[in-house]
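Repro:
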Amino acid sequence: MEGMAKNHPTTASARPHDYLPAAGRDAFLPFYDRLTALLGAAELHRTLLAQADLADGQRVLEIGCGTGNLTLRAKRAHPAVELVGSDPDPLALAVAERKAAGLDGIRFERGYSQRLPYPDAGFDRVLSALMLHHLDDEAKTETAAEVRRVLRPGGSLHLVDFSGTGHGLHGHLAARMMKSGHFSEEPGGGSDDDTLRLLGAAGLDSALVATRRHRLLGQVRYYRAVRPT
């Protein structure tokens, strides 16, 4: 799924990278887009973009963009929107850049969600798809604060994530990956209240928009969080 990169630095001795690669391992990257398509990522992205209500002239950032599928879908649906995809995985970003060749107003840049390399109040929307559950509590808190910082007053975060490991095929995979330390203790990002508290503590007016169940992905939740004017 998009946002697979963990966005949380660790020591070099802990693993080869200071992030979780987009496909879990670099060697799996060539199969990543095909797998996410089979798991139903397109439906999830369509729903999230409909919620985000993008408009011409907006600047939109996706954090944890992976190979860029959500960012590219947004650009093709809204050509007059400026899109930026950010991810710590340079190999995934290279794939995203190749797929975006020939498109204007879209770029992909390396960065961690908890220390975004962007000025204050620079974006109208921030998107996040299936990324939050990869972060530990500290990184989640820092990420929420960074999202608020880069949003313009009145701008909004639109986030979708899993509700836990007990749902669907991804739940089974997530539970296995937890054993290798690639996931936080709450792979679904915790309860609804946990996620709303996280976003609220960062100064965002947040709400649970919808809960959906996908045949393979399992249960997911969609959130909206607005930076007050």
